[in-house]
């Protein structure tokens, strides 16, 4: 009210108040913008809304995907993987290919340059972790594993074998079932609890069946239920009557044929 009074007084005096001028200008400008927005067609409004939505989606995608995609496609430092082969399984397919490429390049060169880390990583990739070989004690040494990954252990006298190279068996031979690690696995005398339960259950049922057959015999055997088909019985009865009627008719015709012969038929015969 004070501003209005001041405005009226200033207008009466012929002096323009800048505060009132700015307020009125802002009010009229916003009203004109609303009029312009209302003048847009529905098709244009939908088009602008769709463009704004697409732009916002692109901005959000850029925030989340740019950094992650760059990290996923960038090469990694492979030294920790060579030091700890168990990290190989958690890598992405792209990074596993990078590690394999570096390892293959080392294997393609001289084998004498291979370090113990390279050998361990190669063994881990191709044969897996120790797995059932949890009782091994020589993981940190250069000794050969007790349980070799092939059936017939053998030895080659040359580092460059050919098709004609003679390969001799290890003497004494290594039998997998006699190694300390595999002794428990190849011990077939020991049976697990589930197998024992089913074996004892089978023996009990067999003994019960033998006792029943020996003491009761056929007295308690299941009674045989004969199911008769009424319609089949009626059909067979009709068929039997029809065959009997046909037989009687043929017999009657034969008798009539015999009785119709002339008296001289016997004389000619």
UniProtKB/TrEMBL annotation:
InterPro entries according to UniProt: Cyt_c_oxidase_su4_sf
Q: Name one GO biological process term.
A: mitochondrial electron transport, cytochrome c to oxygen
Gene Ontology CC terms, in alphabetical order: mitochondrion; respiratory chain complex IV
Q: Report the protein name in the record.
A: DEHA2C13926p
Species name for this entry?
Debaryomyces hansenii (strain ATCC 36239 / CBS 767 / BCRC 21394 / JCM 1990 / NBRC 0083 / IGC 2968) (Yeast)
């Amino acid at each position: 009210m004070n501003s209005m009074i001041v405005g009226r007084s200033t207008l009466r005096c012929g002096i323009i108040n800048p505060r009132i001028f700015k307020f009125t200008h802002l009010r009229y400008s916003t009203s004109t913008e609303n009029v312009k927005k209302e003048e847009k067609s529905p098709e244009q409004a939908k088009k602008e809304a769709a463009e704004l939505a697409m732009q916002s989606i692109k901005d959000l995608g850029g925030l989340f995907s740019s950094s992650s995609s760059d990290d996923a496609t960038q090469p990694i430092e492979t030294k920790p993987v060579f030091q700890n082969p168990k990290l190989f399984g958690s890598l992405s397919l792209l990074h596993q290919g990078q590690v394999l490429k570096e390892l293959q390049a080392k294997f393609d060169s001289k084998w004498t340059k291979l370090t113990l880390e390279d050998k361990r990583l190669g063994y881990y990739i191709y044969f897996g972790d120790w797995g059932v070989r949890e009782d091994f004690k020589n993981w940190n040494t250069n000794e050969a594993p007790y349980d070799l990954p092939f059936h017939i252990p053998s030895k080659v006298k040359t580092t460059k074998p050919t098709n004609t190279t003679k390969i001799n068996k290890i003497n004494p031979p290594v039998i997998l079932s006699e190694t300390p690690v595999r002794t428990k696995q190849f011990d077939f005398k020991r049976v697990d609890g589930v197998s024992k339960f089913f074996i004892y259950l089978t023996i009990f049922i067999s003994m019960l069946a033998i006792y029943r057959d020996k003491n009761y015999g056929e007295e308690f055997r299941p009674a045989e239920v004969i199911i008769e088909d009424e319609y089949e019985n009626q059909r067979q009865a009709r068929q039997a009557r029809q065959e009997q009627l046909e037989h009687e008719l043929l017999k009657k015709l034969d008798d009539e044929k015999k009785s119709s012969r002339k008296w001289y038929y016997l004389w000619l015969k």
